[in-house]
């Protein structure tokens, strides 16, 4: 099939390259000329394992990029993979989606054949039918169900394993309201589902598909917060939380994944998606108490980490190494990284901060241009009074002798990853 993807960020680029890999002809449309040029030169605009290889293989053949929306005219279906950030009060901000839908609608006015427009972005229930569809109708002069359809296909890939997650998913959720939209969505995903190891296909309504995405993320975020609550209790009683969590994970009703206690969840999705569904729930008169508690626990973890640091070192005037700036390992994405509230608080307390990350330094520098950055973990630790471990990069697990270069080593480990040494002050956060 011929597919167009509007937006070529983490999701749009990954799904475009993967759709090309399973045999579709794909065009990415993005307003960012640099992103388009990078893709057309056969390179990935983002750091994601396996993505460079796919783009190198398919660019110029089954995969191309353009800034020109006219490219959608020669395709059967368009996926909207645009950012859906938060407003200041946590509500979903749909302005980017609406602008793209308007450009797409104006282009679809020129198309004679049937077209399917699929929301790939994470959007609160009713958005596709009550916000996107009317914009498309107004701009195209066509009606949904006559000439074009809308659908919803939430994305569950994780950064750092995006290619693998997309090509071999646990589930594919296809939301539609008409038989033709359902058939078209099935045809898009059939080649992917056939080569995946065990992907369930969930065919459902559009607003159900929208809500499945929020329910999925909210459940996972709340699971981590519950685990952090339990691990905090463990720490107060001097109980080894890792033994407790490993044991409860053996209960198949709980499961062993997403039991990683520590400095909490960040990233481009959990914080904004939990905030958006909480705000949406309140809009319809429901107080989502569990989700509010999940956010409160998550906000408290960096504060606890600094309290533990203060038990050993006064941050004022101290040189503090922050190991890990990306919101998780395997990515250069620093959106809502836990390093952000930690460094803000360290700077407020008068600390001299040096940051290190294997791949995310340049992205982080845009947010914090004035702190020091080191080229290696060892260089960051050299002369530091304290170290905070924020991201669970594998290379931090291998650190050992490097701590000798610190003044009087104090290590607060927010991911319980560092190898303990009896001769230095080591505290796990939980
Ligand atoms: N990042 C993830 O891991 C992930 C996973 C699942 C779902 N999601 C959801 O997918 C959506 C996209 O997220 P992302 O992280 O890929 O966003 P992103 O910010 O990385 O990418 C968005 C892209 O859209 C482009 N763009 C902006 N306005 C445009 C326009 N009018 N026309 C064409 N292109 C335009 C931008 O230049 C950018 O390249 C969000 O709703 C997010 O919640 C993200
Ligand atoms: O046991 C754990 C697992 C994760 N995290 C943290 O949780 C955050 C999110 O991690 P992860 O879910 O692995 O990364 P994302 O790429 O943000 O993926 C989430 O958000 C995406 C965007 O919606 C969804 O598509 C994915 O299914 C969902 O896992 C990170 O800060 C992790 O450090 C923990 O603290 N403990």
UniProtKB/TrEMBL annotation:
**Superkingdom:** Archaea
Catalytic activity from the UniProt record: UDP-alpha-D-glucose + 2 NAD(+) + H2O = UDP-alpha-D-glucuronate + 2 NADH + 3 H(+)
In its keyword annotation, does this UniProt entry include NAD?
yes
Domain UDP-glucose/GDP-mannose dehydrogenase C-terminal, first and last residues per copy: 321-420
Carries keyword GTP-binding?
no
Transmembrane segments annotated in the record for this chain:
none
InterPro entries xref list? 6-PGluconate_DH-like_C_sf, NAD(P)-bd_dom_sf, UDP-Glc/GDP-Man, UDP-Glc/GDP-Man_DH_C, UDP-Glc/GDP-Man_DH_C_sf, UDP-Glc/GDP-Man_DH_dimer, UDP-Glc/GDP-Man_DH_N, UDPGDh_AglM
Keywords of the record, alphabetical order, are: NAD, Oxidoreductase
> What Pfam families has UniProt attached to this entry?
UDPG_MGDP_dh (PF00984), UDPG_MGDP_dh_C (PF03720), UDPG_MGDP_dh_N (PF03721)
The entry assigns this protein to a family as follows:
Belongs to the UDP-glucose/GDP-mannose dehydrogenase family.
NCBIfam families registered for this protein in UniProt: NDP-sugDHase, UDPGDh_AglM
Query: Which named protein is this?
Result: UDP-glucose 6-dehydrogenase
- Which species? Halogeometricum luteum
Mind giving the lineage of the organism this protein is from? Archaea, Methanobacteriati, Methanobacteriota, Stenosarchaea group, Halobacteria
